[in-house]
Design brief:
The complex is a heterodimer.
Chain A lengths: L1 H9 L3 H40 L8 H19 L15 H27 L4 H24 L16 H4 L5 H8 L3 H19 L1 H11 L1 H6 L4 H25 L13 H11 L4 H23 L4 H9 L2 H5 L1 H10 L23
Helix pairs in contact in A: 2-7, 2-8, 2-11, 2-12, 2-13, 3-4, 3-5, 3-11, 3-12, 4-5, 4-11, 8-9, 12-13, 12-16
Chain B lengths: L5 H44 L8 H14 L2 H26 L7 H18 L5 H30 L3 H21 L22 E3 L3 E2 L1 H18 L1 H11 L1 H6 L4 H28 L10 H11 L4 H25 L5 H20 L21
Antiparallel strand pairs in B: 1-2
Helix pairs in contact in B: 1-2, 1-13, 2-3, 2-12, 3-7, 3-10, 3-11, 3-12, 4-5, 4-6, 4-10, 4-11, 5-6, 5-10, 7-8, 7-12, 8-10, 11-12, 11-13
The chains are: A mainly alpha, B mainly alpha.
């Protein structure tokens, strides 16, 4: 076996490729839980995008929604923590404080989405402007309040902890790391996989899904068969907001236990990229999010523990920022249709005007 | 020439009234309402964080300090002009795009790449005479920014890729590219953290105060240039025609695809000039965390100015003054500078929502649609 692999490594060009695959196969099992963690906010944000855009509402305010929810989850947690008993549950480390903080984060996201829905559906403003308003205002309000509060003592309300899967499961050869990836997670990251599957089924197999897609493709036709376009779009934007809120809560309640100014760091926009590359499907969005988080993780791994030989020389010659821009470059290539075109719903971004009753 | 019939006269007067309202009244109302919201935010946050004391005078104190920081004395006014220049240039670009139905969210990336081009050439020519180094560095910034605008224009014209998506992505590509180049080929050897050399003689000459560089004059001159191009040239007419109705423009013999590419290139060039001006006029060198809020701010300014170059000038001065005055507000009144972002977001909100609120939530009005059909554009 070793002889075969060494033989393959010796082939020019192809050898390098085989070495690269070998390197990835070598490192991915070790970092697999991290991959899903990094992908979680991207995937949830992308799902928000899918659910909004499938019904015809573009939402570039995901970034702002996420940031505001992350802040509210943190601030509410810190505020109520002294008032409530703090004995975390054995699994996930759930405390009453965290539950209240989570609900507050979701409500915040709901409120922001209501603004987006009102501006883009009722007011029929340009949806990009509406998203821009959310992004600017969320950055301003969270930054403003954080500055004020930080002068006191920045504290933490704790965070969800990861579930520890049974070691027998994790140690199964070849596939154990997959169990580790999906089970060695906190509640929000673990729920992502469930949400993705449920949404995939709902979007393509349920009445709601059919209606959503109809409204996103041809709202006029949908209305003639009795679908309330405005109401459906409102519902979808609000539901999408919940997902973006969950992504925000993940950042301050699971991935870390405190807030930082502008801590979303463009994740809301990578989420849009994941949505596009995933072709507006939940499963595709998760796949793209995992692809992005993997490329980041592999880039870090290359910096800290580069593979030896020619492969190491090649990979370390590419600066880390080269890997950072990969998701964005891939998205540009895909929307330009250079490799596998990704086509948005036909009525995406168009405000809907009811036909005047005569 | 026959005299206008009374009803025609009345409708003309009404439409004039509507234009004045849309160009001046609405932005003013939005600004006032946003300042009021800002005041409420200040009072509420003082109540929550400042020990439960209702302090009605606090907003006045904060806005007073903001005004003082923006206009109190020569240095403050110069600082306002310095903050206004990049906003003005980038917003002229964004507004130019709006006029032809293109939503350029890429001002941030075009600004950053413009600054990158300017610093690369500026450092190379740091020892050359200023008369050579300055124009070449500025032009390099304009050229690289224009390229960063041309890419989404080209992809939209030839492949139907929507510019909103491609410009967002290019913003992030620009951030990574900048960090890679500053940490790599442009880095100063032996520096603690990545930073480029100083641009030396390529720095923009200062003509007023301690840092009032000539980029300010260039920015103001561009208002006139963009106005002239938009309203007094055939090209500008075509740009606006495509924005109003691309199909009609095509039947009239114009070439929307070519215009899309040119327009985005001009957007990029103006934002690139903004970046070059800041780099060569203010920072003189670039760290790997060189960043800007111009991207979203310029969208707000362009909308506030109704995409009209003169309106944009006023919008940019307003937002530039806020940026310039914010530090003093933070020091004197202990109000975080992020209040400016709150106000900007709120101004935009009221700009969009006020007409609807005034009509009692009735729908069926002319709404702000910049680009048509996000979906169809990609077919």
């Amino acid at each position: 076996m070793d002889g075969l692999i060494n033989g393959l490594y010796g082939i020019p060009l192809l050898g390098i490729l085989v070495q690269f695959v070998g390197y990835i196969v070598h490192i991915v099992p070790d970092i697999s839980p991290l991959l899903l963690q990094a992908a979680t906010p991207l995937a949830l944000g992308a799902l928000c995008g899918v659910i909004c855009e499938r019904s015809g509402v573009v939402n570039i305010g995901i970034e702002g929604t996420m940031l505001a929810s992350a802040f509210v989850a943190w601030i509410v947690g810190v505020t109520v923590a002294p008032l409530l008993p703090a004995d975390p549950s054995p699994i996930f480390g759930i405390t009453p404080t965290l539950l209240i903080a989570l609900v507050a984060a979701l409500l915040t996201a709901l409120l922001i989405s209501l603004v987006h829905a009102w501006l883009s559906i009722t007011v029929r403003a340009d949806q990009i402007i509406s998203g821009t308003i959310i992004n600017i205002a969320a950055f301003g309000v969270t930054g403003y309040l954080f500055q004020l509060i930080e002068k006191g003592s920045p504290t933490s309300a704790g965070a969800f902890t990861a579930f520890t899967p049974p070691s027998q499961l994790v140690q199964i050869p070849l596939v154990g790391w997959i169990f580790n990836m999906f089970l060695n997670q906190g509640p929000i990251a673990m729920s992502v996989i469930v949400i993705v599957i449920v949404m995939q089924v709902l979007l393509f197999r349920s009445r709601w899904g059919l209606r959503t897609r109809a409204v996103g493709e041809h709202p006029r036709a949908a209305e003639t068969v009795g679908i309330d376009v405005v109401r459906l779009r409102y519902r979808n934007v609000l539901a999408g907001g919940l997902l973006a809120g969950l992504a925000g809560a993940f950042l301050t309640m699971e991935a870390s236990n405190s807030f930082q100014t502008a801590m979303t760091q463009g994740r809301g926009f990578i989420a849009l990229a994941a949505m596009i590359i995933g072709r507006w499907t939940p499963l595709g969005a998760l796949g793209a999010a995992l692809l992005f988080s993997s490329s980041q993780a592999i880039a870090q791994s290359i910096t800290f523990a580069p593979p030896g030989g020619d492969l190491g020389t090649i990979l370390t010659a590419i600066p880390a920022q080269g890997y950072d821009m990969l998701p964005y470059l891939v998205t540009i290539i895909v929307v330009a249709g250079l490799i596998g075109r990704s086509i948005p719903p036909a009525a995406d971004g168009q405000p809907y005007e009811r036909e005047a009753a005569t | 020439m026959t005299a206008a019939r009374p009803d025609q006269e009345a409708s003309r007067r009404r439409s004039l009234g509507r234009r004045v309202w849309s160009a001046i009244g609405l932005p003013l109302v939005a600004i006032v309402l946003a300042m009021l919201v800002g005041a409420v935010v200040i009072i509420a946050s003082e109540l929550l964080v400042g020990g439960g004391q209702l302090n009605w005078g606090k907003p006045l104190e904060a806005y007073g300090a903001l005004f003082q920081g923006a206009f109190g004395g020569t240095d403050a006014v110069v600082q306002t002009a310095v903050s206004t220049a990049p906003l003005l240039l980038a917003a002229l670009g964004v507004g130019f795009g709006f006029k032809s139905g293109l939503f350029n969210i890429g001002a941030q990336g075009q600004y950053l790449t413009g600054a990158l081009g300017a610093v690369a050439v500026g450092v190379a020519l740091a020892g050359a005479p200023g008369i050579v180094a300055v124009p070449l560095s500025v032009l390099a910034g304009v050229a690289v920014g224009a390229l960063w605008g041309f890419i989404p224009g080209f992809l939209k014209a030839t492949r139907g890729a929507h510019e909103v998506v491609t410009t967002i992505m290019l913003n992030y590509v620009a951030i990574s590219l900048l960090a890679a180049l500053v940490a790599g080929p442009l880095n100063t050897p032996k520096s603690i953290s990545p930073v480029t050399h100083d641009v030396g003689n390529a720095a923009l000459p200062v003509f007023i105060g301690s840092n009032g560089h000539i980029g300010i004059l260039i920015a103001v001159a561009m208002v006139a240039v963009v106005w002239f191009v938009l309203y007094r040239t055939t090209f500008g007419f075509e740009v606006r025609a495509v924005g109003v109705n691309p199909d009609a423009a095509r039947y009239a013999g114009m070439r929307p695809r070519l215009l899309t590419m040119l327009t985005m290139t001009i957007c990029g060039g103006l934002s690139g000039l903004a970046g070059a001006g800041d780099l060569l006029g203010v920072s003189h060198q670039m760290t790997s965390s060189f960043s800007t809020t111009v991207g979203f701010d310029s969208i707000a300014v362009a909308l506030l100015g109704r995409s009209n170059p003169v309106g944009i000038l006023f919008g940019a001065i307003l937002f530039g003054a806020m940026r310039a005055g914010a530090p003093l507000m933070q020091i004197q009144a202990s109000i975080p500078a992020e209040l400016i972002d709150v106000i900007q977001g709120t101004v935009l909100f009221f700009l969009v929502a006020t007409p609807v609120i005034l009509r009692g939530f009735q729908t069926g009005l002319d709404t702000t649609q910049i680009t048509r059909s996000y979906g169809e554009a990609s077919h």
